[in-house]
Write a structure and sequence with these properties.
There is one protein chain. With 238 residues, the protein is of the alpha/beta class. The protein has nine helices and six strands; from the N terminus they run E-E-E-H-E-E-H-H-H-E-H-H-H-H-H.
């Protein structure tokens, strides 16, 4: 497997879970994992959980499994990628960030917040890390694309990784007994043009950004970048 190639993960209960590269994983909300799922993540080397959600999103749901003390083995870091009260960003992202077309605005408005996510990844090294948002598609997709960019992923890998996450959460919507308030399952004909447009959008974002220079410019240090590359399994000269 290429060091930057995303592959699916089957921890019990996990939704839209993928290995991004090396010992870095991404998924939907952590509360979906069962105790067995957390044990599987631990066996896979994960020691840090980075939650990209805003405080108001971290509420448990009646359908979430009881995990007891299973999560106690992990360090949970809260690192939201946005300010949900930022007026201009809210106006762009209705009802929330759900399209790579707005990743560049996120990076422009909230560089310190994105840098904090990468600092948390660096601090997790040498242990593995799982990064999650709510659906496991856009906030985690934005961070995953930046990580893949650092790891030297090809254009094709970056596009296909985002598209896989789109398909993953779309399939989740198909199985829901209670409909999502803002999204629904899309059949193949409806999904195909979105996959193409949004896949191209995530690639345009990350290649225009220049992740390495962006992070260095906003406070991530060269040693921290080395630590990130280490956990990604990608040793690249800085």
């Amino acid at each position: 497997m290429n060091a930057s190639e995303q592959v699916p993960v089957s921890w019990d209960g996990a939704v839209n879970a993928w290995r991004v590269a090396g010992s870095v994983y991404r998924m939907g909300r952590r509360e979906w994992l069962t105790a067995a799922g957390w044990q599987e993540a631990y066996r896979d080397g994960v020691r840090t959980v980075i939650d990209l959600r805003n405080p108001g999103e971290r509420q448990p749901r009646a359908t979430d499994p009881e995990v007891g003390e299973a999560l106690a083995a992990f360090e949970v870091v809260h690192a939201p990628t946005e300010d949900p009260d930022h007026g201009e960003f809210k106006a762009l992202c209705v009802p929330y960030l759900n399209d790579p077309a707005y990743y560049a605005a996120n990076a422009r408005f909230f560089p310190d917040r994105l840098a904090a996510v990468f600092k948390a990844v660096a601090a997790a090294s040498p242990g593995g890390v799982v990064i999650h948002c709510s659906a496991g598609r856009d906030r985690s997709g934005m961070i995953a694309a930046m990580l893949q960019d650092l790891a030297g992923a090809t254009d094709d890998h970056i596009v296909k990784s985002y598209q896989a996450a789109m398909r993953g959460i779309n399939e989740r919507h198909r199985m829901l007994s209670t409909p999502h308030p803002h999204e629904r399952y899309l059949d193949g004909e409806e999904l195909a043009p979105l996959l193409e447009r949004r896949g191209a959008g995530v690639l345009e974002f990350v290649r225009s950004l220049n992740t390495r220079e962006y992070l260095l410019r906003h406070g991530v240090t060269a040693p921290e970048l080395e630590a990130i590359l280490s956990v990604l399994g990608a040793r690249v000269s800085l």
